[in-house]
Amino acid sequence: QVQLxxxxxxxxxxxxxxxxxxxVSGFTSGYYAIAWFRQAPxxxxxxxxxxxxxxxxxxxxxxxxxxxxxxxxxxxxxxxLQMSNLKAEDPALYFCAIDQGPCWPLADRKGQGTQxxxxx
Length: 120
Fold this sequence. Notes:
Blueprint: E1 3-7, E2 10-13, E3 18-25, E4 32-39, E5 46-52, E6 58-60, E7 68-73, E8 78-83, E9 92-100, E10 114-119
Parallel strand pairs: 2-10
Antiparallel strand pairs: 1-3, 3-8, 4-5, 4-9, 5-6, 7-8, 9-10
C-alpha cells in the first residue's frame, strides 16, 4: 500500500520561509514523478511543483517560480519543497502525490497534507 506523509508546515510571516517534506513508502516503481499541490479554502486545487525521478527535471506553477524549489532523494523516495518569500496568496493545505511516469502525476495517490499559514 502506497503511503505519503507530508510534514514541515506551519505559520510564518510574509516573506518568510518553510521547507516541506514528503516521505513515500510502499511505492515500488523506480520511474515516477512526485508533485506538490495546494488547496486553499474556497479555491480549487493548484499544482505547485513536480519533479521527475528519471532526470530530476522540475516544473513549477508560474505563481511560485523563483520562490519555491523542489528536490528529491530517489534512494528514500522523498521529495522536498523549499518555499521562500512566502506571500499572502500562499496559505493552503499542501499535499504531495506520486504516480508512475513523467510530470505531472495524477493526485490519486496523495497524502493528508500539511497546513501552511502566512501572516502579514
